[in-house]
């Protein structure tokens, strides 16, 4: 009986200690909606937040690090390798990636390897390489070659990137980061996740959504192509015929 009571007390103390380590977190975005116009050349969005007292009211103690992970809408991509056959370059092997984030950023107050255990980085897949490996569905060639090529292509397009010094602390608990959205950023719902790290462990986390969408005439054209494909096709053909006729008239003069 005494041993059982002692065990219950010990478990309660452990639970209390664990709860004390769990910090509160609030964070938000500067622009909930990013509008894309015909002259859209990219945008910068600011994410900011504050580390709050723990569940029992204990104020934040010690030093913290913060990791931001931003994911764009998922998509499907195919990477192909060309080979010369009978003097002609033709598609040969290929790899299919499904459920791949169309945009992926990892920003942290310090390099990930210095603030998180490798197991946590692997479990949470906090790298572009891990995201690519997870999205691989099928391959008819060298898997590593295709994965490395996709990482390179997405990096060159400024869609995949990591920054080990991308988060700044303006006070011991208030932090912010700036995320650059390139001109070729995809439309859709983006998810921003913030991880608060202390002593190699994630002690708080939260998530916010923001939207990237076309607006104005570009949005009308895009919606027409999806919702009214027949009318959109007819209008496109008529516009092409009119443009060709007008060009012929002008050149005859």
Average residue pLDDT: 83
The tally of helices reads 7
Shape: globular
Q: What low-confidence regions span 5 or more consecutive residues with pLDDT below 50? A: 1-20
What is the gyration radius calculated from CA atoms?
Answer: 25 Å
The helix/strand series, from N terminus to C terminus, equals: HEEEEEEEHHHEHEEEEEHH
Instruction: Going across the biggest sheet, name each strand in turn.
Output: 2-13-12-4-7-9
Distance between the termini: 106 Å
Helix/strand/pairing category: alpha+beta
The fraction of residues in strands falls at 35-45%
Largest sheet: 6 strands, mixed
Give the beta-strand count: 13
Percentage of helical residues? 25-40%
Description:
Strands 2-13-12-4-7-9 form a 6-stranded mixed β-sheet. A 4-stranded antiparallel β-sheet has the order 1-3-11-10, with no helix packed on it. Strands 5-6-8 form a 3-stranded antiparallel β-sheet. With about 250 residues, it is of the alpha+beta class. The chain starts with a helix and ends with a helix. Residues about 1-20 have low confidence and may be disordered. The protein has helices at about 1-20, 110-115, 120-125, 130-135, 145-155, 215-225, 230-250, and strands spanning about 25-30, 35, 45-50, 65-70, 75-85, 90-100, 105-110, 135-140, 160-165, 165-170, 175-180, 190-200, 200-215. It has 7 helices and 13 strands.
């Amino acid at each position: 009986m005494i041993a059982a009571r002692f065990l219950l007390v010990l478990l309660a103390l452990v639970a209390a200690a664990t709860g004390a380590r769990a910090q509160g977190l609030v964070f938000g975005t500067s622009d909930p909606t990013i509008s894309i116009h015909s002259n859209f050349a990219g945008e910068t969005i600011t994410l900011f937040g504050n580390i709050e007292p723990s569940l029992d009211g204990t104020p934040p103690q010690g030093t913290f690090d913060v990791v931001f992970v931003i994911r764009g809408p998922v998509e499907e991509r195919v990477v192909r390798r060309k080979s010369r056959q009978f003097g002609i370059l033709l598609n040969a092997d290929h790899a299919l990636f499904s459920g791949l984030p169309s945009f992926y950023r990892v920003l942290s107050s310090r390099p990930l390897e210095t603030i998180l255990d490798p197991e946590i980085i692997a479990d949470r897949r906090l790298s572009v390489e891990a995201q690519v490996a997870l999205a691989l569905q099928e391959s008819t060639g060298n898997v590593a070659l295709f994965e490395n090529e996709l990482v390179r292509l997405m990096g060159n397009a400024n869609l995949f990137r990591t920054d080990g010094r991308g988060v700044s602390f303006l006070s011991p608990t208030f932090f912010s980061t700036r995320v650059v959205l390139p001109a070729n950023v995809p439309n859709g719902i983006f998810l921003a996740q913030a991880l608060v790290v202390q002593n190699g462990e994630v002690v708080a986390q939260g998530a916010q959504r923001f939207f990237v969408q076309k607006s104005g005439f570009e949005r009308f054209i895009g919606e027409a192509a999806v919702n009214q494909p027949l009318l959109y096709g007819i209008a496109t053909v008529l516009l092409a015929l009119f443009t060709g006729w007008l060009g012929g008239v002008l050149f005859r003069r």
